[in-house]
């Protein structure tokens, strides 16, 4: 990032009060700056070109065709500064989340999320990671029917090319753990975890960690996260309470 590590953000939302609310929330953080806002597609594209943000927050209902269409437009010719797009939404559906991921979004957050979630999402995406609102995770996983549990002697064909370490990382990703936690759990370096995650994504033919987690749940390698597990974990600092999706 440039500008003394200040995360530059553009807010694209159809509602003025929503943009004002985001400005107020993010104004509390010294390392985040809202450098532009817009309520129509041409203005968003012009602002992004002019301001060179690190992250663009896009309303899922952004007119005229929706935020996912705008997300795709932004990613067709992204400025060099852009680390990713975060989709914001008032009402969550599993279909919207999966469509957002496939449109290339690096983050997904509900508009009524607590203030700390917004800055956490921006920091994650700006640093090359991804963010999924914690309260969404259990809903996504619970919508999938599990197959019989993992049997190392009867590996599903989709996982034939994964080695034992990659299977361990796959299961940890499905639990919502981020790279540092996985490294500690498996007693390996974070760089090893990142390399395994990239290899898993390539071998499974998916696009990011959300799709990796969904594959793991569908194949019975992991159980859905219970609602009680989806909020902050006891003892964790606010800035680290995130779910990685890519």
Structure description:
The chain is α/β, with parallel strands linked by helices and 246 residues long. 43% of the residues lie in helices and 12% in strands. The chain contains 10 helices and 6 strands, in the order βαβαβαβαβαβααααα. It has helices at residues 16-26, 41-51, 67-76, 94-102, 115-126, 134-142, 164-174, 179-186, 190-204, 209-218; strands at residues 7-12, 32-38, 55-59, 84-89, 107-110, 131-132. The chain has a 6-stranded parallel sheet with strand order 2-1-3-4-5-6, sandwiched between helices. β1, α1 (16-26) and β2 form a beta-alpha-beta unit. α7 packs across α9 (190-204), α7 crosses α10 and α8 (179-186) packs across α9. The longest helix is centred in the C-terminal third of the chain and has 15 residues, at 190-204. The chain is globular, with a radius of gyration of 18 Å. The chain starts with 6 loop residues before the first strand and ends in a 28-residue tail after the last helix.
Helix/strand-derived category reads alpha/beta
- Distance linking N and C termini: 19 Å
Describe the strand arrangement of the main beta sheet, using strand numbers. Answer: 2-1-3-4-5-6
Mean pLDDT: 80
**Gyration radius from CA atoms, angstroms:** 18 Å
Oligomer class = single chain
Number of strands: 6
Unreliable stretches covering 5 or more consecutive residues? 144-155, 224-246
Helix and strand succession?
EHEHEHEHEHEHHHHH
Approximate shape = globular
Fraction of residues in β-strands:
5-15%
Helix count, per DSSP? Answer: 10
């Amino acid at each position: 990032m440039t500008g003394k590590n200040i995360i530059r953000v553009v807010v694209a939302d159809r509602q003025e009060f929503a943009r004002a609310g985001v400005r107020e929330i993010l104004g509390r953080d010294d390392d985040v700056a809202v450098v532009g806002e817009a309520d129509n597609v041409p203005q968003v594209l012009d602002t992004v070109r002019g301001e060179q943000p690190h992250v663009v927050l896009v309303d899922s209902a952004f007119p005229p065709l929706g935020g996912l269409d705008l997300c795709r437009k932004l990613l067709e010719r992204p400025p060099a500064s852009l680390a990713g797009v975060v989709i914001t939404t008032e009402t969550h559906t599993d279909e919207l989340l999966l469509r957002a991921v496939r449109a290339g979004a690096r983050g997904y957050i509900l508009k009524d999320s607590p203030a700390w979630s917004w800055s956490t999402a921006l920091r994650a995406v700006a640093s090359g990671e991804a963010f999924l609102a914690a309260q969404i995770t259990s809903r996504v996983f619970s919508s999938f029917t599990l197959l019989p549990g993992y049997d190392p002697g009867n590996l599903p064909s989709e996982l034939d090319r994964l080695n034992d370490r990659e299977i361990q990382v796959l299961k940890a990703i499905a639990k919502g753990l981020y790279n540092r936690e996985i490294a500690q759990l498996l007693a390996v370096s974070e760089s090893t975890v990142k390399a395994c995650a990239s290899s898993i994504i390539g071998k499974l033919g998916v696009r990011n960690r959300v799709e990796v987690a969904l594959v793991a749940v569908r194949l019975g390698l992991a159980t859905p996260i219970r609602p009680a597990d989806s909020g902050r974990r006891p003892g964790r600092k606010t800035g680290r309470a995130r779910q990685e999706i890519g």
